[in-house]
Amino acid sequence: MEPDLDALFNPRTVAVVGVSTTNPFHPANIIYNKNYYGYDCNVYAINPRGGELERRRVYESLSELPEKADMVVVAVKAHIVPEVARQCAGAGVRSMVVISGGFAEMGAEGQALQDELAGICDEASITLVGPNCFGVYAPPAVDTFFLPPERTVLPGKGHIAVASQSGAFMVDQIMTNFHEAGLGLSVAVSMGNKAQVDEEALLVHFAQREDTTLMCFYIEGIDQGVRRFINSAHEITPHKPIIVFSGGKSERGKHAAKSHTAALAADHELVEGALRQSGILEAETESEMTSFAKILAFYPNRPMKLCNIAVISSSGGHGVIASDMATEAGLNLPEFTPERQQEIRRLLEPNIQEIAAVSNPVDLTGSAADQDFERVLDYLLSKEDIEAAIVLTLPYTPMMTSFVGTRLGQVVKQYDKPVVAYVPNLAKYGMVLEGFELNGIPVVHSIEEAIQMLKALRLLGIACQE
Amino acid sequence: MEPDLDALFNPRTVAVVGVSTTNPFHPANIIYNKNYYGYDCNVYAINPRGGELERRRVYESLSELPEKADMVVVAVKAHIVPEVARQCAGAGVRSMVVISGGFAEMGAEGQALQDELAGICDEASITLVGPNCFGVYAPPAVDTFFLPPERTVLPGKGHIAVASQSGAFMVDQIMTNFHEAGLGLSVAVSMGNKAQVDEEALLVHFAQREDTTLMCFYIEGIDQGVRRFINSAHEITPHKPIIVFSGGKSERGKHAAKSHTAALAADHELVEGALRQSGILEAETESEMTSFAKILAFYPNRPMKLCNIAVISSSGGHGVIASDMATEAGLNLPEFTPERQQEIRRLLEPNIQEIAAVSNPVDLTGSAADQDFERVLDYLLSKEDIEAAIVLTLPYTPMMTSFVGTRLGQVVKQYDKPVVAYVPNLAKYGMVLEGFELNGIPVVHSIEEAIQMLKALRLLGIACQE
Question: Under an 8 A CB cutoff, do B255 and A359 touch?
Fold first, then answer.
C-alpha cells in the first residue's frame, strides 16, 4: 500500500502509549510533556495501569480517550507493540510512530515481530513510522523526538525536509548543524527500521509539499527501500534537489550499520554510481551535507557548467589554499589575460594598485578596502566565463568595514551568479556575517566549506546533464 | 651566518620606521600603538619629516632616539628599505622586521632590492625577518603584526611555536582557530619572503626553547630554506613534534603561491615523502592542523603502534560514520570477541543491557547514563589491544549529565592512553565540554576532527619507526 503521509504531519489528537508514572525520563513521558507544553496537538497519556501524571489523568486504553486519536506514539517493550497496533486498528487511528527498539535490528525473532506489526498496520491502512526510531518532527503540530527539548536544538521553520535512518544523526548532525548554519526545516522524520514508511515514501511526499524546496537524507547501507528511492529520485531531482549522506561505506561501518538499523551492506561504489545517475548530490562528509544544503537554500537553481570560479581575497595564503582545494573539488580558477589583469588593477584604490596580485586568485592584500572588493567582484561577475565567486573576508584588516557584506550583496543581486563568503567563526564578527547573509550571500567559516558549496553546484550541473 | 633569534623575541627597545602623522590606519601606526599600549618594550615612532603623533614625538631618525633600539620595524616603500638597513647597521640594531612588500614577490627588480637588504643585514649581524611579512608576535615583549588588536584574536600564552609563510594564514587559520580550540602560543613568526630568517633557522631556535613543546609551520612551495628545514627536522622530531601544512599543491595553487611569496613550485608528492621521512606530521587540511596541534598538546608523546581504537557512542549512526572515517584515516576498530561483548554487556545498567550494541563501535543507545560510559571506557582502556578511544557524547540524551566529562577524565588518568570526546559545538553544552577538558580529555566538535586527532597519533607512530 501507499502510506498516507499527511497522517504523520498534521495529527489533531495524539496518544502516547507507555507513559511511566514513576520515571520522568521515560521516552514516552518526554514526548507527552513536550507536546503538552509546546505543540498544537491535543496529547493524551496512556498506560494500562492508569493513574496520574502531575495530577493529569493517565488513560488505561485508547478506547477511554475523550476523542479519537489521529496518531499513536508507542514506547513499550517490543513484544507488546503488535497488540497496541491491533487496538489502533480497532480505534480508527491513522498513524503510528513506534519508538521502541527490539525488532529487526535484534535478529530473526525481532524481524518476525516487526513483520507482524507491519502486517497489522498495512491491513488497517495505518501509516507506520519505525520501529526503533525517533519518529516525526512536524512543528507546530507534533514532535515525537523523545529528547528533552531543553537539551536539543530546534532549527527554525524553513524549506528543507529531512529523513534519517539514524535518529541521533538527525538530531545532532542535521538539526544542530543546520541551526548553526541558519537553515530551517519543513518537517523531519527519523525512520528507524522502516517497517513501512521508508525513504521512497517520504521522497514522494516531500516532492509534493509546497513548503519544501530541498530534501536531505541520511541512509545506511542499501535495501529495497533505498533502491526504490534512487529510482524515484530520477523524476524529482530536475525539480527539487536531493542531498544524500550515506553511512556504512567501509567494512567496519557496514558491520556497525547492521547492528544499528539492520541495514544491508552494499558496495559503496555501486551506491555512489546509482545516486549520481539519479541526479542526487552525495555529500562525502558530515560538513559537506550542511554546506550543500546551505548553498542550495541561498541559490536554489544555479547548476555550474564550466565550473569556472573566481577567488577574491585579502590574503595571498588563503588564495593559495583555496586554489588547492578547488582543484581537488573539480573546480577551475581560469587564468586571467594580461588585459583583464590590467583592468582589475585600474579598479583598485591607489594604495594597493601596485601591490595587489590581480591574477586568479585575486589577492587584494591586507590594505584593501570595501570598495576594492566591491569593484573587483562586480567586474568579475560581469564576465561570461566566470560562473561563481568566493570572497575570502578577513575582518582583521584595518580598511575593511563591517558594511562590506551589504555592499557586496548589492553587486550579487545584479547578476544571476552564486557568491560565497568566508568569515572566521567568532562572535565578534557577527556584524560582518550578518551584512552578507541579510543581502543574499551565504557565509561559511572555513575555506573548505566555501569550496564544498561551489562543488555542490558543480554536482548539480553534472546531474542536469545526465 | 646563523641569525641570532633571541634578538627577535625579547627586544627592550623597538623603533617603528614609517609612522604616518596623517593616516591612523597605516601599518606602522598600528604597530606603534599596539606596542605602546599593550607590550613591555619601549617603542618609538620614526618618520624623516618628524612631527607629533597624538602629542607624542615622532623622531626623524634612529640616531635621535634617547636610547639604542634593539629592534627596528620597517614599513616604508621598498626602495627606501636598504637605506634604513644601513642606518640600523650604523646604530647597532640587533634585529629588523621588514613589513613592506615590493621585493622578490614583484620580480627581478624586487629580488635585487631584497638581496641588497639581506646583504646589509648579514654584514652587520642584524637578524632580519621579512620582507613582505607580519613579523613577530612575542608576548609580553613585542608584537609587530600590523592588524588592529581589537579586530584580531590573541591565543593565550602556551607551548606551541608557529611560523608561517603567509601572515594572514597565521592570523586567521592559526591564531583564530587555536584560540577557539583553547590552544596557547609561545611565539609566532610570519616569515614573508624569508630574505634571511627562514623555516630552518626558526626550527632550530624553537627546538631549543624551553617554553615550546610543539611546532607548527605553514609553508608554500619548496626552496632551499624548506629543504634545509626538512633535513634539520630529522634530528628534532624524536624530541618535539613538528606539524606542517603546505599550500601550493595544485597547479593553480603553485601559480598563486609564486605571486604571493615568490615561492618555488614543487611536485607535492616529493615534498610529502620528504616530510614523512623526517618524521614531520603533514596536515592535509586547515582543520587537521588544529586537530593535530590539540591532540599533541593534550597527549605530547603517545605514538600509536597497532592503530587500534575503540569507539563508544550513544548513537548508532555516529558509530557507523566514525567507523567509515576511521577506515579512511588508517585506523582500525578491532572486532570484539563474544566473551568481551558479554563482559561489556554485564557492565551496563539494566535499562540498556538488552538493547545496547556491544561490538566496536559500542552503541550504548540514547538511554545510556554517565556510569555506562564510565564502566565501558574503563574496561576497554584496560585491554592491551586498544590503544586509544573516541567517546561520542550527545548531550541530548536524558540520562547523561554535564558531569560525564569529569567522570571519564578520572578513568583516563588511570591509563596511559589517549581519549578524545566529541561534544556538539553549541554554547549551551559548555558545561559538558569543560568537564572533559579540565580533566585531560580534548574535545572536538565534529566526528571528523576526532578521527583527525587519532590519525595524528598514527602518523606519530609511523614517524617513530622511520
Answer: yes
Whether residue B268 sits in one domain with residue B217: yes
A438 and A376 within one domain: yes
Residue B338 lies in a domain: yes
> Could you tell me if B52 and B178 lie in one domain?
no
The CATH number linked to A208 is: 3.40.50.261
Tens-digit pLDDT profile for residues B35-91? 999 999 999 999 999 999 999 999 999 999 999 999 999 999 999 999 999 999 999
The partner residue sitting opposite B249, judged by closest CB among A27, A151, A324, is A324
Give the structural domain span for B163. Answer: 153-298
* B286: in domain: yes
Q: Are residues A435 and A407 in the same domain?
A: yes
B186/chain A closest Cα distance in angstroms: 21
Q: Quote the strand ranges of B201-291, DSSP E.
A: 214-220, 242-247, 281-283
The 10 Å CB-count burial string (b at 16+, else e) for B206-242 is bbebeebbbbbbbbbbbbebbebbbebbeebbeebbb
Same domain, B293 and B401: no
Is there a contact between B327 and A252 if contact means CB atoms under 8 Å apart? yes
Q: What pTM was computed for the model?
A: 0.91
Question: Strand, coil or helix: what is A188?
Answer: strand
ipTM of this complex prediction, to 2 decimal places: 0.88
Domain final residue pick, B298, B329, B351: B298
Q: Which band of pLDDT confidence, cut at 50, 70 and 90, is reported for residue B210?
A: very high
Q: Which of B79, B193, B321, B359 to mutate to test the interface with A (most CBs of A within 10 A)?
A: B321
* Positions in chain A short of pLDDT 70: 1, 260-266, 466
Partner A contacted by B42 (CB < 8 A): no
CA distance B70 to B68: 6
In 3D space, the residue among A314, A316, A363 whose CA is nearest the CA of residue A336 turns out to be: A363
Q: Among A410, A317, A442, A402, which Cα is nearest to B167's?
A: A317
Percent of chain A past pLDDT 90, that is, above it, reads: 81
Instruction: Indicate whether B406 and B363 sit together in one domain.
Output: yes
Contact of B316 with chain A, judged by CB distance below 8 Å, is answered with yes
Task: Sheet with A71-74: list strands edge to edge.
Answer: A52-53, A56-59, A42-46, A13-17, A71-74, A95-98, A127-129
Which of A162, A259, A261, A320 to substitute to test the interface with B, most B CBs within 10 Å?
Answer: A320
Q: Are A318 and B448 a contacting pair at CB < 8 A? A: no
Structural domains of chain A, count: 3
Whether the CB of B326 is below 8 Å from some CB of chain A: the reply is yes
User: What confidence tier does B410 reach under pLDDT thresholds 50, 70, 90?
Assistant: very high
In this structure, are B37 and B163 located in the same domain? no
In a domain? residue A139: no
pLDDT bin (cut points 50, 70, 90) of residue B111 is very high
Distance (Å) from the C-alpha of residue A447 to the closest C-alpha of chain B? Answer: 8
